[in-house]
Amino acid sequence: MKNKINKKRGAQRLALLMSLLLLQGTWAWAGDPQSAMQETVDRVMDILTDPALAGDEFWQERRDRVAKAVAERFDFAEMARLSLAKAWNERNEAERERFVSLFKELLKNTYVERLKTYSDGSYEVIFDKVLVRGKKALVSSMVMQQGREIAASYKMYQRGNEWFVYDVVIEGVSLVSNYRSQFAGVIQQEGYEALVRRLEEKVSETVEAQPDAPGLS
Questions:
Q1: Model confidence over 119-132: pLDDT tens digits?
Q2: How many C-alpha atoms does 91 have within 13 Å on its Cβ side?
Q3: Whose CA is closest to 165, among 143, 141, 137?
Q4: Residue range 96-153, pLDDT digits in tens
Q5: Exposure pattern of 196-207 as b/e (b: 16+ CB <10 Å)?
Q6: Closest-CA residue to 216 (of 175, 187, 184, 179)
Q7: 151: which of 10, 11, 85, 174 is 20 to 30 A away, CA to CA?
Q8: How far apart are CA 118 and CA 99, in angstroms?
Q9: What domains appear along the chain, each with residue ranges and CATH number?
């Protein structure tokens, strides 16, 4: 009887161990999403530090190249959908296309402009942790510049053999959640058309300085 109990317990331990190993393997497998983000970051930094593109006269070209590299990795349509939340379902196809276009320009104007601070190469990006479960992944990194550390995480999903970003979390603040809150407030107080007008005004502005935070104000 004791032998049967010991064998049963041994089998249970083995099953538990196998389950933990499989789960660990699922979470720890990080090659594709991390490599994808590393590739995009490397491309962006190569553009920003290219001596042939140095100087303010080449900033627009650098900016356009960076925007193209980012657009290949970031799913702006999905980010726009998540940011608009339930209001997305109330829009027709033409409205959705217009919103995605404006949202993409807003992100480009806001975040690509900020990359000026990295043009001198005095930075380091360290990818320190990756969690993968099925077709979703969380890629964590640390941007280090002039003694300052900024935590940045990328929420990604897999489509085919590629990984795409659908949200960015900076210092614990989700880009999608941040915009969702702002957009919902404008829609509730002024209506959807007012939100579109604000986005149109925002993306039409010439960016003279780095904004303190993303937003419509």
A1: 565 677 888 899 99
A2: 21
A3: 137
A4: 999 999 999 888 877 666 666 665 656 778 888 999 999 999 999 988 877 788 899 9
A5: eebbeebbeeee
A6: 179
A7: 85
A8: 30
A9: 30-204 (3.10.450.710)
